[in-house]
Amino acid sequence: MRNWKILTLALLLMVFLALAAFYHGLVLKRYQINTDKLKPDASIRIVLISDLHNHIYGEKQEPLISLIRKQKPDIIALAGDIADDQVPIMGTELFLAGIKGMAPIYYVTGNHEFWSHDIDNIKSIISKYGVSILENNYKPVRIGDSSIIIGGVDDPDIVLFDKADLDWEGGLHKAFSPLQDYPEFKVLLSHRPELIDIYLKTDFDLVLSGHSHGGQVRIPFFINGLYAPNQGWFPQYAGGMYTYDTLTHIVSRGISFNPRLPRIFNPPEVVVIDIKGK
Ligand SMILES: [Fe+2]
Questions:
Q1: Over the stretch 73-87, which tens digit does the pLDDT of each residue have?
Q2: 23 Cα to the center of ligand 1, angstroms
Q3: DSSP per position, 194-246
Q4: Were both Cys, which of 35, 152, 178, 271 would link to 48 (CB 3.0–4.6 Å)?
Q5: Which CATH number fits domain 26-277: 3.60.10.10, 3.60.21.10, 2.40.30.10, 3.40.190.10?
Q6: What are 221-249's pLDDT values in tens digits?
Q7: Are the C-beta atoms of residues 213 and 263 closer than 8 Å to each other?
Q8: What is Dmax (Cα atoms) for the chain?
């Protein structure tokens, strides 16, 4: 009798773990950053979306759109690979139509948008929905009584398909060197998390990235990602918040969904970042 109880419990545990491992509903991931560059009672909420890869959630992206709307974002940041080189762009258009007008939207390219060989068309479609496309430039953003600066760079794969003679890192430093004169809190959108050593040489306070898809397979408390592009096995920047002396780096695990490449213990995530004054 006792053996049956143990066997039943073991089976239930295995079923629970299997359901949890392959769960692929959208989840929220929240982070808070405190800064003396905002007034003590000020707060700015950024919703970060990365790596949609044109996937369509539910009926016309409604589950994704309503989850973002419920967060009441001040800014929506799109950190690349929103479109894809293999999947029709309809998923991106449905998504952008749904979030249009919710908040100011800022976008940078990922590698897959360049791999499409159709980058100008993709940018033109995205800008049609009122999205600001950041390409080695920055803009001031006013939210209530607070001002921050948001900048962004094209994915470095621009050099493979568009501007072969471009000095990507040199261009980034040149574009953002004037920021050292600005006292505001500064946010950089850049698709690639593994280039953190370059971002650390800038004046940004917060960097938002994607690209690593959470390392595809996770084992909670043991492995934060098995494999990520451009990082390889057991990637250091698979997803999460990384804190340095001069900046904070948040790497989204993205909202990609590919049934041929399951995410394990790694559900697609909508990231909510509250920047609070102190
Ligand atoms: Fe990517």
A1: 999 999 999 999 999
A2: 22
A3: GGHHHHTTSS-SEEEE--SGGGSB-BTTTBS-SEETTTEES-TTSSEEEE-SS
A4: 271
A5: 3.60.21.10
A6: 899 999 999 999 999 999 999 999 999 99
A7: yes
A8: 74
Single-letter amino acid code for the residue at 182: Y
List the beta strands (DSSP E) in 2-61.
27-35, 43-49
CA–centroid distance, 42 to ligand 1, in Å, is: 33
Residue 153 burial by CB count (10 A; 0-12/13-18/19+): exposed, middle or buried? buried
CA 77 – CA 47 distance, rounded (Å): 6
Ligand 1 centroid distance, CA of 16 (Å): 31
Sign of CA dihedral 81, 83, 113, 102: negative
CB-side exposure of 60: number of CA atoms within 13 Å?
Answer: 5
